[in-house]
Amino acid sequence: MAWKQWAASKRLKPGDGRELQRFRWWQLPPRSLFWLRLPGAGGHARLHAVDVRHWARLDNSKIRVHLFLDGRHVTGLKMPAVFPVDGGVIEVAMSDYGIRRCHYRPLGGQPRQLTPDPASAEGRRARFGARHPGLSRAIGIGSVLLLVIGVGLNLSLTFLPSRSGSGRSNRRYICRSG
Length: 178
Description:
Layout: H1 3-11, E1 13-14, E2 31-39, E3 45-57, E4 63-69, E5 72-78, E6 81-85, E7 88-95, E8 98-106, E9 112-113, E10 115-116, H2 121-131, H3 133-159
Antiparallel strand pairs: 1-5, 2-3, 2-10, 3-4, 4-5, 6-7, 7-8, 8-9
Helix pairs in contact: 2-3
């Protein structure tokens, strides 16, 4: 057993065996769902699901991630989470803006991303990028341009002289009437 698997197994809490809920359209902002199919014993494929509820924070502001195996709850951990599975580990980490990492890392190979549920925000974004790569790229470039323009405007306002103080303006405005 690798060190990561051993350390992760010490933090695991047994699951309650509840069934995995289907992803609904109204759960787009607060939930992420990822899938991983691994070969199991006897040649049967085992389906792992990682369920993250972004807005379901615990008392100490930690988010809990749940692992389901063949549709049944196996365990849950606080973020960042490392779940030992057959042949490796599933690593899940989150940033302030969403899922930062959701990978399967086999014991002797390259890590690979888990597949997002097609109904989730991540799955919709991936499907849109695959169907319309040019439009997806244009939206990304437009987002970066808006960000750069906003930062530039904020910086320019930071370095302009202030018009407050004595109530007088540093510039004279001359108004001539005809």
